[in-house]
Structure formats: structure tokens, C-alpha cells
Amino acid sequence: MIFASEVPVIARLNRYRHVEDVFYSVWKRVDPAQVARMERQLTVLSPEEQMEHIIEEAGAKDIATEAIKQSSTLTHGAELNQVAESLAHEIRQLPGATVETKISSSVISHLSSRKTMAHARKPRP
Predict the structure, then answer these.
(1) What is the pTM (predicted TM-score) of this model?
(2) Among 53, 87, 96, 102, which is most buried by a count of CB atoms within 10 Å?
(3) What are the tens digits of pLDDT across the range 53-65?
């Protein structure tokens, strides 16, 4: 069903709205379940959300949380690298884990960025 207000848009007489908007709204009215399914499939995750998803899939959420807590008290980059390397090692040791080198390095950089954010929030003495 098309509303009367959508006819000028389809005829390109309304320069403020696009035909794509009408198509989307009609599609959403006709089959909202399919639109919701398509939107879920096409959702793009941020790099941080992707990394959290990878950590969860590997079953390493508790390990990563503990490593982030540990790293928040560190002051030197070398100590942070040690924590990150031990995190990657623990993830590789998980049963059924097939963590590739690329993912391990992603976990390390994710932990480093989380550590940097936590360190930046600390009040300076």
C-alpha cells in the first residue's frame, strides 16, 4: 500500500524526499520481519565490538577482563606487552581454540588500546 503523500515522491515531484525512502518505508510496512532480519545481517560492528565478539567466541572473556584489570595498574609499555603476550598465550591454550596469529595480534592491540584508555582516565598526581 502506498500513501497519497508518497505519490509525488515516486513521480519525482517532491525534491525533498527520495524514492529510496518511499521504497524502504513501504517495504517496512509490508514485511517488517524481513527488514529487521536484513538490518541485523548488514550491521557493521566497530573494531572494538568486533574484538569483543572474537574474545567472546574464543571463550576468553574472563581472561581478557582479568588482563585488562592487571594492565590498568601498569606504568611501562614493556609490562603491558608482557600482559598482552600472556593473554594471547592463554587464549591459544583454550580448549578448541583456533586463534590465528592475526587474531592474537588483534587481541594484543585491543588490550593495548583498552590499557591506554584506562591510563588516560586516571587522575594525575
Answers:
(1) 0.39
(2) 87
(3) 777 776 767 777 7
